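>> received
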Amino acid sequence: MTTETARPSPLQRVSRILLSDYFVLYLSLAYVAALAPFYPVLLTPANISNVLSNMWPLLIVATGQTFVLAIAGIDLSQGAVIAVTSVICAMLIAVTGNEAVLGNAPIWGAVIDSDGGLLSGVTGGLAIAILAMVVAAALIGMLNGVAVAVFGMPAFMVTLVTMLVVSAFAIYLSMSENISGLPEAFIDLGKGDLVSVYFGAQEESKIPRKVIYSFVTYPMVIAIAVAVFAHYLLNRTVFGRYVFAIGSNIRNAQISGVPVRRIVVAIFVISAVCAAIASILYSARLEAGRPTLGAGTFLLDVIGATVIGGTSLFGGKAKIIWTFFGVLFFVLLSNTLNLMNLSAFQVDMVKGAVILAAALLDVLRTRITRETAR
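>> returned
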């Protein structure tokens, strides 16, 4: 006797694709394949290197946001954390200071002067400055977490206020001026590479730096290390199970003995620390501490990339691999929109439409999952 295996219907096949962990990766590949014939520069080594360099700091910030969205929260203060930690680090390690630029800033003469920052030339000064960034970020994240978990305030409102206050404080510290003159050891964290690729004639005796493309960089190593650790934390530990329990149903989590308050506070600390790590890469790449880092539509990129990847806005469903693919797609989208020479407002309109589509896709996935579970 033979039994015939029922073939999946077209609707079932579509459902499998939509629920696949690799759906956004497939979408990214299809997007590139569709545009490459019209924009050949898209697949050039220079553009690929540019796409990769833009991915890594965004991936770190989006990784932190993934934890917050997993508990059905949101962190609007990440951009502000990036800005204030950028200024904190720069004012401590700058090799020189410009009185004409920073003379009116409250940090001039107290933390930085014409001889540089407080930790300039100090043994281990760079490590201490980076630690100061992380500690400052952790304190901001802890305040957010306590306000949400202990006082029961909405995460949206809490992090919105934090964003406004911390952003203003970052601008106040340097009076809206950039702090340049950072040491080479710090700059290498954002621009240094371990493996470079050169495409061209090998017999050339002197190869211009501009045709040598970075492949394995310090930002790549740092970002992948953060993502791997976050994946382990979210999917292989009790902490991760608690995160999903809170995101699925916070009442049931409390009844089951989950330490909800501690977990929520820890999640907001993780989000802020991820922003501080990304601030290191952004500041080093720009070779300056900037009080306006993370401003504008930066938060749109972070949340958009995370949601596009598949992390649910309703909580209880998140994977770091989804965030990775979401960041890849969002960076590719931004890159191609720039290649199309669209204006800034047109780019924002397209990004907004894509994020709305991602939110609708999240609703569709949730419905499919519920129907499948019945």
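>> The radius of gyration is 23 Å.
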